[in-house]
Amino acid sequence: MSFCFHLRVSLSSLKTLSCRVPNLNLQGGQFTADGIRQLAKYLRRHDWDRIRSLSLRACKLDPAALAEAGEIVSGLETLDLSYNNLSGGDADVRNFAASLAAPADDKRIRFVDLRHCRLSDPCKRVLSDVGRKEKIEVKMW
Questions:
Q1: 7-139 has which fold?
Q2: Which among 79, 45, 76 has a CA at the least distance from the CA of 61?
Q3: Cβ atoms of 93 and 60 closer than 8 Å
Q4: What share of the chain is helix, strand, coil (3-state, %, to 5)?
Q5: Is residue 55 a contact partner of residue 27, using CB atoms and an 8 Å limit?
Q6: pTM of the entire predicted model
Q7: Contacting residues for 92 by C-beta, under 8 A, at least 6 apart
Q8: What does residue 79 show for φ and ψ, rounded to 5 degrees?
Q9: String of DSSP letters for 62-125
């Protein structure tokens, strides 16, 4: 599913796919922090443990939405957040990095794509350190 602009419509559409889709592509949608929070809540409620990969590429995420994305990281293997402008949100990026490092029984995350996100150098260092420590490949430019 791509270009999901209406969150409620999109979430109801996702319900029918919950047990069939291992890779969920929401690329190009427009998600606020509240939208990501609703998506995380929805995924937990509908037992989305079969989803391995989530793409939120170019979804106009802001740093606050990135912090909320930490809620859905542990159950995924791959998370694509590339082409979102995350500049100016160092605290939120650090919160996201902390969610990558947080212990969880269902933690499967192995790859996070943050290319073209305008991350500050200190944030890149924090994410690189977490990636190295947790054995998560974090792509950044």
A1: 3.80.10
A2: 79
A3: no
A4: 40, 10, 50
A5: yes
A6: 0.85
A7: 63, 64, 66, 67, 86
A8: -135, 120
A9: -HHHHHHHGGGSTT-SEEE--S---TT-HHHHHHHHHHHHS--TT----EEE-TTS---HHHHH
Residue whose token pair is 């939208």: 35
Question: Tens-digit pLDDT profile for the chain (141 aa)?
Answer: 443 444 554 666 665 555 567 888 989 988 888 888 888 888 777 766 778 899 999 999 999 999 888 888 878 899 999 999 999 889 999 999 999 998 877 778 999 999 999 999 999 999 999 999 999 999 998
- The two beta strands, 78-80 and 111-113, are parallel
Q: How many of the other CB atoms lie within 10 Å of CB of 95?
A: 17
Through-space distance between the first and last CA atoms of the chain, rounded to whole angstroms: 27
Nearest alpha-carbon partner for 53 in 21, 12, 95, 98 = 21
Select from 118, 120, 119, 111 the least CA-distant residue to 139.
111
Residue type, 8: R
